[in-house]
Amino acid sequence: MKMLRVLLLPVSLLYGVIIYVRNLLFDKNILKSSAFNIPVISVGNLSMGGTGKTPQMEYLIRLLQGKYKIATLSRGYGRKSKGFLLASESSTAKEIGDEPKQLKQKFTNIEVAVDENRTSGIQTLLKQFPSTKAILLDDAFQHRKVKAGLSILLTDYTQPYFDDWVVPSGTLREFKGGAKRADIIIVSKCPENISSAEKEKIRLALKPTKHQIVLFSYIGYGNCTRLFEQSENICSPEDLINLNCEVLLLTGIANPSPLKNFIATLTSEIHLLTYSDHHAYTAKDIETIKMRFKEISNENKVLITTEKDATRLSPFKKELAALPIYTIGIETQFNKEDKQQLNALILNYVKKN
Predict the structure, then answer these.
(1) Which of 276, 270, 251 is nearest to 327 (CA)?
(2) If you average pLDDT over residues 250-257, what whole number do you get?
(3) How far is CA 137 from the centre of its chain?
(4) Across-strand partners of 71?
(5) Which tens digit of pLDDT belongs to each residue from 279-337?
(6) How wide is the angle at C-alpha 264 spanned by C-alphas 258 and 270, nearest 5°?
(7) Is the CB of residue 39 less than 8 Å from the CB of residue 87?
(8) In this predicted structure, what is the pLDDT of residue 231?
């Protein structure tokens, strides 16, 4: 694997240079970016995925939704449709993508839209909902055609961008110098008890500019909810999993390790069934899931999956309704100091603009 990465370095260098030139053209205003007269907050990363953008989007929604009329906009990765679409509670993951579907399910009182052309998408949102006070852009750090007023860049604690390289030899979408465009850098998925010394070590490795704020977040796990019975059977993971319970953990996300490690603190009896990020489940996959669950001999067993996976499993309600499938809530959390700093930055930006 290491040798393959070395062999791919020339391809990575060529790709990185192409993206660097593109960014330079935007920086020099040769390629134009559109700015808007309302607050636009971008959440993105340098890597191909797995940094926790959706939980971070949810954090911002919770912070702003009670104070301002907000909307979210993404391209809707993996959807089978094109152009602008406004999500409704009946929209499917195939129509709008799994992450927008998840946001709409959890936050029914905000507007959730998808459009591969973010400029056009913002214009359409403002035309349809002129009272919108702020727009959150999901996965838009490389989308230079829109000039966000505030840019949040996420990097995974376990694979920070300063230890990575451009695809295909690494996972970065551009050279790590692109991080200088961010206003806020959040190191995500940290240990909850990360020390001040380790934070400082990471800050030095990130080499933030004078205007950049570096913060640290960790994953918090919420309640488990019975899939297909969302108004019932809500319990804590600890209550769901007892010492005699076995778990089939089903994931189709970029990095399932943190969730696996969390479940491992509750039970040693874990069976893994993993698919690629944004995997579109098929009837054959459903049969595999049912078979793997049946193979667990312990009658005291549950199937746990993520909220994002649940949006792609929902079309198979008839086939899966008999299984004890639970989704687990995943949230971005900060220590008190970082939370206060981030909240103040976001709220002051929106208020001023």
Answers:
(1) 251
(2) 93
(3) 12
(4) 111, 135
(5) 999 999 999 999 999 999 999 999 999 999 999 999 999 999 999 999 999 999 999 99
(6) 105
(7) no
(8) 56
pLDDT at 282: 96
**Selection from 204, 166, 165 nearest residue 185 by Cα:** 204
84 Cβ contact list (under 8 Å, min separation 6): 113, 114, 115, 117, 120, 121, 124
pLDDT above 60 (res 34): yes
Express each pLDDT in 193-235 by its tens digit.
999 999 999 999 999 999 999 999 999 999 999 998 765 678 8
pTM score, whole prediction: 0.94
**Length of the chain in residues, anyone?**
353
Q: How many CA atoms lie within 13 A of 48 on its CB side?
A: 14
pLDDT of 14 over the 80 cut: yes
Cβ atoms of 115 and 73 within 8 Å: the answer is yes
Nearest to 312, CA basis, from 227, 246, 231, 244? 227
Q: Say if residues 339 and 186 touch (Cβ distance below 8 Å).
A: no
Alpha-carbon gap, residue 115 to 121, rounded angstroms: 5
pLDDT for position 230: 60
How many angstroms separate the Cα of 217 from the Cα of each of 53, 55, 186, 252? 12, 11, 7, 23
Torsion angle of alpha carbons 261, 263, 264, 265, nearest 10°?
100
Does residue 52 come out as left (phi exceeding 0), alpha (psi in the -120 to 50 range) or beta? left
- Whether residue 256 is preceded by a cis peptide bond, meaning omega within 30 degrees of 0, is no
